[in-house]
Amino acid sequence: MTVKNTYDDVSDGVSGAPIARIMVVDDDPDTVSILARYLRREGFAAVEASSGAECLKLINQGEIVEIILLDLMMPDMDGFEVVRALKNNPATVEIPIIMITARDDIDARAEGMRLGVSDFLPKPVLRKQLANRIHSQLEMVATARATEATLNNIDGKIAGAGKQ
User: Whole-prediction pTM value?
Assistant: First the structure.
């Protein structure tokens, strides 16, 4: 098992803005290396896992990631099993999962979407396409969080007005 955080700090070092941490899960070390390099070039931090079990172990040990790039076809525990485990855990249910796979058929996509996969990318992955999909997922998460905060603020004001 290889566990490697490619960035030690969590800011970009210039503006102090946080770097999005992306976990790459694939049983092929070359694929993990290539995707991690793509992520670094796009300004992200990469957390590497060589199996579904390692992904879950890292997450359960407190590794915080904003997105998971997950291979579908892996030995022992395939991507669908990893998605089920992540989506059944209240601590990880909201993490977007982008399935990266050589198996790009309708049945695989349908099953992935049913389980909660956010997006799919076929192998080989193009760097700019990967970056665009990650940015899209990060924007959706930020929008959902902002909407939730606004609704909580409104609820608080309504509850406060009812007490007057």
Answer: 0.83
Total tally of structural domains belonging to the chain: 1
List residues bridging with 4 in a β-sheet: 48
Give the residue numbers spanning the domain of 15. 4-162
CATH number of the domain residue 100 falls in? 3.40.50.2300
**Residue 149, number of CB atoms within 10 A of its CB:** 10
> Given pLDDT bands bounded at 50, 70 and 90, which one contains residue 121?
very high
Q: What is the pLDDT of residue 88?
A: 96
Q: What are phi and psi of 107, to 5 degrees?
A: -65, -40
Average confidence (pLDDT) over 81-108: 93
51 near 74, Cβ under 8 Å? yes
